[in-house]
Amino acid sequence: MMLEIDDLHAGYRRLEILHGLTLHVDRGEIVSLIGANGAGKTTTLRAVAGLISPTGGRISFDGQEMNRLKPHQIVRSGLVHVAQDRALFGDLQVLENLEMGAYTQSRSTVRQSLDEVYALFPILAERRTQRADTLSGGQQQMLAIGRAMMARPTCLTLDEPSIGLAPNLVAQVLEAIQRIRESGVTVLIVEQNASQALAISDRAYVIESGSIVLDGPAAELADDPRVREAYLGV
Ligand code: ATP
């Protein structure tokens, strides 16, 4: 297992949001975590990224316990998070944003990473000198993912990468995520847009009120009447 979350309890101050959440992601997989608004998806990814401290349970990555690590130590270990709000530096250029993502890297690998990100998202190469806040929503999402890739992750976590995007851009972003996996990166995606996420995932988990209530191969979940009714609007 590459990422293992076992009996995780976490939340905000005295408000517990995750009540013993357990899931894992194997090396090379795309796994999605789907669930309704407020179910605890973002909280799960924030705990994994070290942005909130778990009050119980265990998170391990590549065999190493992560609970007490700081966010930058987690990035250095190879696990990189793309937040839902994208957190770009709006007044900096595309290239400068990408370089910010490479702060853990040596100069020599930055050039190679840039080439890889531009191959993944050619539009970012075209717009390299443009300010990030002048990009469209879809381009900003590509930049957020590209910046994360600049840290040369072995595992990427993505919080609702398709949110607010037009359907053709959703397809482009999801296709890029598949290519990222093909390059050897393990992926955990959180999505409300369940049908799209399931279509590119190997396995999936359904979260309700801070616990996993259902899991299995993505294709099976996409056919499950409970998932279809609650999350696919069928
Ligand atoms: P969404 O799709 O809305 O992001 P989610 O499944 O990702 O949903 P979370 O963002 O993890 O859900 O939120 C779970 C619960 O935690 C919600 O009830 C939310 O109101 C609460 N919550 C989120 N952030 C905070 C915070 N900073 N302080 C207090 N409560 C919070």
UniProtKB/TrEMBL annotation:
The ABC transporter domain sits at: 3-234
UniProt superkingdom: Bacteria
A Pfam family hit = BCA_ABC_TP_C
CDD domains recorded: ABC_TM1139_LivF_branched (cd03224)
The answer to whether UniProt assigns keyword Nucleotidyltransferase to this entry is: no
Span of the signal peptide: none
GO process annotations (BP): L-amino acid transport
The answer to keyword Transmembrane helix applying to this record is no
InterPro entries, A to Z? AAA+_ATPase, ABC_transporter-like_ATP-bd, ABC_transporter-like_CS, BCA_ABC_TP_C, BCAA_Transport_ATP-bd_LivF, P-loop_NTPase
Similarity comment: family membership: Belongs to the ABC transporter superfamily.
Protein name as annotated: Branched-chain amino acid transport system ATP-binding protein
